[in-house]
Amino acid sequence: MPLVKIAPGLRLHVQEYGAGDPVILIHGGSMTHAVWDHQVAALATEFRVIAYDFRGVGGSDRPSDGYSIDTFADDLRRLIGVLGVEPVALVGYALGAHVALRLMRDAPELVSRLVLIAGAPWFVKDAGGGLPPELWKKMQQRSMTDRAAADLALIDGELFLHPPSEGMRLWLAQMAFSWPLPMFAALAPTLRTVDHDAYLPDIAVPTLVIHGRHDKKTPFDGGEYLATRIPGARLVALDNSAHAPILEEVDLVNAALLDFLR
After folding, report:
1. DSSP symbol at 205
2. The pLDDT value given to residue 1
3. Phi and psi for 245 in degrees, rounded to 5?
4. pTM of the full structure
5. Beta bridge partners of 15
6. CA torsion sign, 221 to 95 to 1 to 168?
7. Quick check: 144 and 195 in contact, CB under 8 A?
8. If you write DSSP's letter for every residue of 108-157 in order, what string do you get?
9. Could you give phi then psi for residue 37, rounded to 5 degrees?
């Protein structure tokens, strides 16, 4: 593909593998579509798997504005239309879970199934659920003065229950460095007030929530809350991962996805 025009002056970097019912994977913050490699390899044996980069990130075009959850969700809506894959199963991880939830509010008819990994109904929350305010403040301060050190500190301190391999650290750092600092600076102020709670009970598609019990970045309470507020949602709690179960408990995540998407 790999560049798909979704609007004048805006192309998203898109990778497709496999054939069958369509599944779109939505990456997290400071990451690109590549973070899904382990899931793509498993899912593409049975599904048409689509992974893409947000505007401004990785291989996608970098417009001067439009960095918010709402805009990312609208970009996803346009991408689904251009690819002609509706209704599609959405799998959102972390920031991507917020994008998926916003699309569920705005265009639920486009979605057949929903998976929320390391997600929460709020982006920042004082008690339970989303990012702890202290961590959010520290992330922003560190990024604005030494973004490379901030990216590595996030990888080492917040993503994993067990220390990642050096290869994993470098791989994730490479993804993080593809996020321009001005883009993050524009996005960050729009995130603090993100709140999906009011429309969670309106979600009417089969929903799977996957969450690591040791998640410090988006605490486990957030996943539990999603599973109780979304009608019929099923929660898969992972005992040996923190904020990155897609990288730390690959086999269990892949098995849960395959079972649900089938």
Report:
1. S
2. 62
3. -60, -25
4. 0.96
5. 51
6. negative
7. no
8. GGGEEEEEEES--SBSB-SSSSSB-HHHHHHHHHHHHH-HHHHHHHHIII
9. -50, -45
Strands 48-52, 111-117: pairing is unpaired
What DSSP line would sit under 63-125, residue for residue?
-SS--SHHHHHHHHHHHHHHHT--SEEEEEETHHHHHHHHHHHH-GGGEEEEEEES--SBSB-
For residue range 143-187, list pLDDT tens digits in order.
888 889 989 999 999 999 999 999 999 999 999 999 999 998 899
Residue 227 sits at φ, ψ, to 5 deg, of: -65, -30
Least Cα distance to 179 among 4, 34, 24 occurs for 34
The count of other CB atoms within 10 Å of the CB of residue 107 is 16
Q: And the tokens for 195? A: 């709140």
C-alpha to C-alpha distance for 22 and 130, rounded to whole angstroms: 29
Token code pair at residue 103: 């699309």
Return the CA Rg of the chain.
17
The owner of tokens 């709670």 is 197
Phi-psi region of 118 (alpha: psi -120 to 50; beta: other; left: phi over 0): left
Q: Using DSSP bridges, classify how beta strands 88-93 and 48-52 pair: parallel, antiparallel or unpaired.
A: unpaired
CB 10 within 8 A of CB 63: yes
Helix (H) or strand (E) holding 259: helix 250-261
Q: Nearest Cα to 47, choosing from 6, 12, 81, 90? A: 90
- What distance lies between CA 132 and its chain's CA centroid? 18
Distance CA(206)–CA(199), nearest Å, equals 15
Residue 61 token pair = 């075009």
Tokens at residue 10, please?
């805006």
Query: Are 98 and 111 a contacting pair, CB within 8 Å?
Result: no
